[in-house]
């Protein structure tokens, strides 16, 4: 038999799914809900916590509970890498028309708000080994955030690494004011004579850190996908490494693997 808070949650859930309560609508105050359902305020709070954990409502400090607006979803496929490689050799005018985020979301360039910041760091042991360089080698660490202009949370959290010595011959690749770069990383690398031959992506899942949950605006209980992307050049040398944290409530990953015929 359903508990009292579960019955309250179910009624509110049905109201949301039927459209009786629309995204952005404010729910009645907790005391009002307790009065409507003839239950205690703690019971109502249990029901609201359940709906929060399902991502159906959100609590705004000092304002109350609101029906959560569905956020733009991201479909990330492995075919994006060939698309990016083909695009890297197009004219700048063509490259400026769209980017990887637009490719994954269906949004336009003018729909997006982009942020990038660069800094130089010394490679710690793990990433030095991944690049095949000595520990302490100077890297360019690049932090990226892109969001839909109608939303406040970014699509993901990206930290990218380049070996400074590999890209220093083009000073623009050390300058974050040149971002967003038409054609992305593959075009950037092509300006210093680097062509990619393969990209490895390792995906795991885990609970978010407090900071990740806050920045990505995750509902309670939502996991994140953690992707380590390593790009190799035609000499099988690792030339770029990216760590991407993807929110589990708005990310779909699709892997298509062409198979040769017998």
Structure report:
This protein starts with a helix and ends in an 8-residue tail after the last strand. It has helices at 4-18, 30-37, 41-53, 80-87, 92-95, 100-105, 125-131, 164-167, 184-190, 210-216, and strands at residues 57-60, 64-67, 74-77, 112-122, 138-148, 157-163, 196-206, 224-233, 238-247, 251-254. The protein folds into two domains: 4-67, Orthogonal Bundle (Arc Repressor Mutant, subunit A), CATH 1.10.10; 74-254, Chorismate lyase-like (Chorismate lyase, 3-Layer(aba) Sandwich), CATH 3.40.1410. A six-stranded antiparallel sheet has the order 4-5-6-9-8-7. Strands 1-2 form a two-stranded antiparallel ribbon. The protein has a two-stranded parallel sheet with strand order 3-10. By secondary structure, it is an alpha+beta fold.
Q: How would you summarize this macromolecular structure in one to three sentences?
A:
The chain has helices spanning 4-18, 30-37, 41-53, 80-87, 92-95, 100-105, 125-131, 164-167, 184-190, 210-216; strands spanning 57-60, 64-67, 74-77, 112-122, 138-148, 157-163, 196-206, 224-233, 238-247, 251-254.
Order of helices and strands: HHHEEEHHHEHEEHHEHEEE
Which class of secondary structure composition applies to the elements? alpha+beta
- Give the strand order, joined by hyphens, for the main sheet: 4-5-6-9-8-7
Mean pLDDT, all residues: 93
Q: In terms of per-residue confidence, which ranges show pLDDT below 50 for 5 or more consecutive residues?
A: none
- Would you tell me which CATH topology of the largest domain applies? Chorismate lyase
Sheet with the most strands?
6 strands, antiparallel
End-to-end separation in angstroms reads: 57 Å
The CATH architecture assignment of the largest domain turns out to be 3-Layer(aba) Sandwich
Shape: elongated
Helix content: 25-40%
Q: Regarding CATH, which class of the largest domain?
A: Alpha Beta
Using only C-alpha atoms, the radius of gyration works out to: 23 Å
